[in-house]
Design a protein that fits this description.
mainly alpha, 151 residues, single chain, 0% strand
Length: 151
């Protein structure tokens, strides 16, 4: 669900929108789809592979800056992902209680929307940061590459 919401948020990011869909998939993989992504060396190797495939002409400086941005995004989304797991448990407890606490459920919903708003703002900022690292030509080729992968 988080990846879907992040993908929706990315629609407002213009040229970088295609990047968020890919980032959302990569972040999902880093948060459980592939256990090795908790290992910084594995994450670094994964990013190197992505850069080689999607941005073969990226300079070492661009790659370094993009890795820093991806690491920050991974940390941001990971923290919120853990909070959503805790919220899920709280929702279960509220729904399984003898009396349904509608005010408690609403407060939990509002809290989760607030957290989602915070992370979506961070991710959009990080996507814009990543887009600024790339040249306009690189962004266009990246968008074309990502669009081709969806077909």
């Amino acid at each position: 669900m988080l990846a879907a919401v992040l993908a929706l948020t990315a629609g407002t990011a213009g040229v970088a929108a295609a990047g968020l869909a890919e980032a959302g998939q990569a972040m999902h993989a880093m948060h459980g789809g592939h256990g090795e992504m908790g290992d910084p060396a594995a994450m670094d190797a994964h990013l190197d592979k992505m850069f080689a495939e999607m941005l073969p002409d990226a300079t070492p400086e661009q790659k370094s800056r993009l890795k820093a941005i991806a690491t920050a995004a991974h940390t941001d989304v990971g923290a919120v992902h853990a909070q959503f797991g805790q919220a899920h448990q709280r929702a279960h407890a509220l729904l399984l209680a003898p009396a349904i606490d509608r005010a408690g459920l609403e407060a939990l919903r509002a809290e989760q929307i607030h957290q989602l708003d915070i992370v979506s703002r961070r991710v959009v900022r990080e996507i814009a940061d990543a887009a600024e690292v790339l040249t306009p030509d690189q962004r266009a080729r990246l968008a074309a590459h990502l669009g081709a992968r969806k077909d």
